[in-house]
Amino acid sequence: TTYLMSITASKYSNFYDYYVDELSKDTLLLDYYVWKDDSAGVIFNAQKSFKRVPEMIRVFSKKFGPYPFEKYGMASVFPFNFGGEEHQSISTIHRYWLTGNEMGIAHELAHQWWGDLVTCRNWKDIWLNESFATYSEYIWLEGITKDKSELQKKLSGYERYDSDWSKAIYDPEGQGIQLFSSIVYQKGALVLHTLRNIIGDSLFFEVLSEYRNRFKYSYASTEDFVEVLNFITKKEMNWFFDQYIFRAGWPKVLFSWSYDNAAQTLK
To answer: Which pTM does this prediction carry?
Structure first.
């Protein structure tokens, strides 16, 4: 993925960890580069911040398929305009994430599947990278907790409803807003959750599997993803994307309620 090629250079301290696949017993090198004082410092602590990466890979591998590259790692940088940026096999992260940013680290790791293994065809399709990685934060949380209140809190945390959210998810720049806007992160993540609830877990992850296998080490467009969805569900699902991806705005639900004391029923 040429736009994600990166080089970092500094007087780094290098340390390692490993992920061992439960079935194949294959070992994946986890290769980390941080400044010496940040390896296990009081404030910046890479060893503590990176501790759950093997578990993250385990959760994502079960949901998305085997980790797609020969190794994984992270390089800490400062200053940096972003929190993190996915690069094939080694992500770049902001030094401040070493104070503890589990969801950010999970997000960049998820990009190894969604963005690096399968890359958006053009910038109009950027949601295929960012919405998928953002929703993967929820999938990580789902993999480590059964606390429904925590899961709901995560979904609620995606909600923005700001001026950008009045736009369509598809083609942010064509609508005069920044490419990496909240619509391609949080709004898109909620759309994926909506899709998952419409077609069910089994079909949803089957769709992701087919999408990954069909376009791995290549690129895909939104239309390609729709085609995969229609193929797996054996339904015409274009209406969903017309409503939630290509059109602007968000659903507005009207409701009222009443309580029947005699029947003790809420309507």
So the answer is: 0.94
Nearest-angstrom CA–CA distance, 133 and 228 = 19
Strands 91-94 and 84-85: antiparallel
Can you give the C-alpha Rg of the chain in angstroms?
Answer: 20
Torsion sign across C-alpha atoms 218, 222, 223, 226 = positive
**Cα separation, 180 vs 3, whole angstroms:** 15
Write the pLDDT tens digit of every residue in 75-116: 999 999 999 999 999 999 999 999 999 999 999 999 999 999
Q: Is 84 in contact with 97 (CB distance < 8 Å)?
A: yes
At a CB cut-off of 8 Å and minimum separation 6, what does 247 contact? 168
How many Å apart are CA 118 and CA 30, to the nearest integer? Answer: 21
Contacts of 150 (CB under 8 A, 6+ apart): 141
